[in-house]
UniProtKB/TrEMBL annotation:
Membrane-crossing residue ranges in chain numbering: 41-62
Listed Basic and acidic residues bias regions: 21-30
A Pfam family per the record: Thioredoxin_4
Native source species: Actinomyces oris
Record region (Disordered): 1-33, 286-306
Name of this protein: Disulfide bond formation protein DsbA
All residue ranges annotated as the Thioredoxin-like fold domain in the record: 117-270
Keyword terms of this UniProt record: Membrane, Transmembrane, Transmembrane helix
Length: 306
């Protein structure tokens, strides 16, 4: 049966085969990238067993050879005792509410990009592949939410990919979508992402360490489905890769070495003192000046002249 289609030339057939092979390679690369998520992340997550008590919460995450020689920070990366970064990152590939040091804040409950007036700053540096960070979150999430609801602190979250696990990039790309498009659920999704890691540690099963697992976690904390539906495209394209790089720059510029690292009012906190679900509250209370009782007047009223 004859057709009206002209017969392809040898060069055209060769080009068609080349394009088809390229498509197959790219599809294979995407599949391999997703498969790597579980394999590589398990080394940094479940492979580091969590022993009871926060005495084991310290995880060395940066090779000493990689430390920057110049320990000076900049306006872009202010030292923890210098307060919050004052400007937005304002770059494509970084969520719009993220500050110039890759962090983001809550000060009025779970409302993104807010600051509690006159309240001390609680800085938390973490890696989404860090098992000890997941333990810290499990202990303190409810407490932090209560402190935020009472406007007792401003929470500054500082991500980093110091363990060099692909899972961190995966979560940060999903988080970038949530920060940009579902900010009201961003703090809850942050906790839900760590809950996946906690489950991996407890069950030794990696089945939820996937894009689908993140979508399910997002659904549980009321991230709209039309938002979580964008996770896969963001992850496949590494949409927020520039944010991941910026977070590592800020971590290195501050000469930090481990996650989690916690600062309160600009001073590094000994993690062994944060082992209970009320220890942050006690830390905040100890730093809050108590009101002084007003002195009652003791003078008697002047008698009236008749």
């Amino acid at each position: 049966m004859s057709t009206n289609q002209p017969r392809q030339t040898k060069a055209e057939r060769r080009e068609a085969r080349r394009l088809k092979a390229k498509e197959l390679r790219e599809a294979s690369a995407r599949r391999e990238r997703r498969n790597k998520i579980a394999r590589r992340s398990f080394v940094g997550a479940a492979g580091a067993s969590v022993v009871g008590g926060l005495g084991y919460l310290f995880y060395l995450g940066v090779d000493a050879k990689k430390k920057p020689k110049d320990k000076k920070t900049s306006t872009k990366f202010p030292a923890p005792n210098e307060g919050l970064a004052t400007a937005k990152a304002n770059q494509e590939g970084i969520p719009k509410q993220v500050l110039s040091d890759a962090s983001w804040t809550y000060g009025e409950g779970p409302t993104l990009d807010t600051v509690a007036a006159a309240a001390p700053i609680l800085d938390i540096y973490f890696d989404y592949s860090c098992s000890h960070c997941a333990q810290f979150e499990g202990i303190h999430t409810q407490e932090i939410n209560q402190l935020l609801s009472g406007k007792k602190i401003t929470l500054a979250l500082h991500p980093a990919k110091i363990l060099e696990q692909e899972w961190t990039s995966v979560v940060m790309n999903a988080m970038g979508v949530v920060l940009d498009e579902a900010p009201a659920q961003s703090l809850s999704f942050h906790g839900a992402a760590f809950e996946i890691l906690s489950q991996v540690i407890q069950t030794k099963s990696q089945k939820n360490m996937t894009v689908e697992g993140l979508v399910a976690a997002a659904t549980k904390v009321n991230v709209p489905k039309e938002v979580s539906a964008k996770f896969k495209a963001a992850i496949d394209s590494d949409k927020y890769g520039k944010w991941v790089n910026l977070s590592n720059e800020a971590f290195s510029a501050r000469d930090l070495q481990s996650t989690p690292t916690v600062f309160f009012k600009g001073e590094k906190v000994d993690l062994t003192k944060l082992g209970t679900p009320t220890s942050l509250t006690e830390l905040v209370a100890a730093a809050t000046p108590t009101a002084q009782p007003t002195q009652q007047a003791t003078a008697q009223p002047t008698p009236q002249q008749g």
